[in-house]
Amino acid sequence: MKRSILFDTETTGFDPDMGDRIIEIAALELIDDLPTGEVYHVLIHPERDIPPEATKVHGFRIEDLEGKPKFSEVADGFLEFIGDSPMIAHNARFDFKFVNAELKACGREPLDYASRAIDTVEMARKKYPGLPASLDALCRRFGIDLSQRGTHNALLDCKLLAEVYVELMGGRQRGLGLAGPSRSRSMTDGINALASRLPRKMAPPTAEELQVHEAFVNTIKDAVWHRE
């Protein structure tokens, strides 16, 4: 069986080199490309403020994170969950950069991007050259329900990305076949187990706000990508 970890982060901004920090990590286990229902999810106090612009994106205010652990307090649990498995993310350089900045700050070894990263943006651009590769665009292309997606949320984004990843790997039927008869959970079971853990969030932004934000995020993330 092939184990991999699909993960996402929410942050106070776009660049850890400028002092931005992680406030949420969600990760889920895949076996043979299917979610097993095993989830790592934690909210993190960033030890700094959260700019209003960031709150508009993910809905978190610093008051929501009072009493939550610092990254240094959850680092070992996160590393134990991911083990040495490949790490799947949408625009992986962005999330790896934040995770590695946090790991370095608390004296842990960084994750090796070259040997562990699987970037679903790269996969989508190779499979559909010239077409949008945002998570929303891919969900629409594959007919994946976006009705729950208002503000950005690491756990929900992982749920959506898990379904996108199956399609990028060859489609839902191929993925279900990979699981084999011995698997106790289907793809739907794993996704539903994840969905049941989604937190309640603030009222979502308008469609216009989401469109403007997505364009801005893609611009910034592309800049981070090319600077690496």
Automatic annotation (TrEMBL):
Listed InterPro entries: DnaQ, DnaQ_proteo, Ribonucl_H, RNaseH-like_sf, RNaseH_sf
CDD domains named among the record's database cross-references: DNA_pol_III_epsilon_Ecoli_like
GO biological process, one term: DNA replication proofreading
UniProt-annotated binding residues for a divalent metal cation: 8, 10, 157
Residues reported to bind substrate: 8, 10, 53, 58, 157
Catalysed conversion reaction: DNA(n) + a 2'-deoxyribonucleoside 5'-triphosphate = DNA(n+1) + diphosphate
Domain of life: Bacteria
Pfam families, sorted: RNase_T
GO molecular function, one term: metal ion binding
Domain Exonuclease, first and last residues per copy: 3-174
EC number(s) reported in the record: 2.7.7.7
Cofactor requirements of the protein: Mg(2+); Mn(2+)
Keyword set, alphabetical order: DNA replication, DNA-directed DNA polymerase, Exonuclease, Hydrolase, Magnesium, Manganese, Metal-binding, Nuclease, Nucleotidyltransferase, Transferase
Co-factor binding comment: Binds 2 divalent metal cations. Magnesium or manganese.
Catalytic residue list: 152 (proton acceptor)
Leading EC class: transferase
One term under GO cellular component: cytosol
Subunit note: DNA polymerase III contains a core (composed of alpha, epsilon and theta chains) that associates with a tau subunit. This core dimerizes to form the POLIII' complex. PolIII' associates with the gamma complex (composed of gamma, delta, delta', psi and chi chains) and with the beta chain to form the complete DNA polymerase III complex.
Role noted for this protein: DNA polymerase III is a complex, multichain enzyme responsible for most of the replicative synthesis in bacteria. The epsilon subunit contain the editing function and is a proofreading 3'-5' exonuclease.
Protein name: DNA polymerase III subunit epsilon
The organism of origin for this protein: Gluconobacter albidus
Organism lineage string: Bacteria, Pseudomonadati, Pseudomonadota, Alphaproteobacteria, Acetobacterales
Gene it is expressed from: dnaQ
